Amino acid sequence: MSAPSMMLYYNAASPFARKVLILLHETGQAGRVGLKPVAVTPVNPDAEVCHDNPCGKIPALCLADDNVIHDSRVILDYLDHQHAGHPLIPRDGPARWRRLTLASLADALLDAAVLIRYETFLRPEEKHWSDWLDNQAEKISRSLAYFETEAVTELSAHFDIASITLASALGYLDFRQPNLGWRSSYPRLASWYYEVSQRPSMLETQPPA
Ligand code: 99T
Description:
Elements: E1 6-10, H1 15-26, E2 33-37, H2 47-52, E3 60-62, E4 68-70, H3 72-80, H4 93-121, H5 130-157, H6 161-176, H7 182-185, H8 187-197, H9 200-203
Parallel strand pairs: 1-2
Antiparallel strand pairs: 1-3, 3-4
The structure holds L-gamma-glutamyl-S-(2-carboxyethyl)-L-cysteinylglycine.
């Protein structure tokens, strides 16, 4: 196999980076991208990442021509145009907007979960803002309730951008909020997640134990 032509700034704990890794596995492109592990938080930026992505966030994908693509949504779109198989982001029609909207809701759920992580892990305990934390948690539960009642059947139809993003989000909840107990409130989602978790792309990209 030839050497990877692209390089991804990533961290095994990042659900946004995991989305990229899952898509690479699902589309047979994992060998095309070398992985560069970095540890970044809003209060611990990495100089190299900031050079390539001014906002300092991961994932960021460095291409062979030195261009850099960042934000997981843009990276997934780029990589989905680099393989010959069935697209994982519908190219047009109502399916495109529906699947992107579901993916966007899962991304928003993830944003809330990452903000909770930063507030509780990075800020001193006496400065934690409980109203703000509660409202981030509400965003998560409203989103999960929507997926449970309005979208599980659709999600089951394809493992694509919407499913990849939601699966990464649920994996991140298990990783960072193991006591949340979301499965008992959202049993259909739990059974969907159990099924998709058996995919090689999911098994090979699990967050650290
Ligand atoms: O905010 C920072 O400066 C550093 N944080 C990040 O780079 C996080 C890592 S997840 N990435 C994002 O927030 C990317 C979000 C963007 N919209 C995308 O790529 O989709 C780390 C989670 C954890 O450690 O628990």
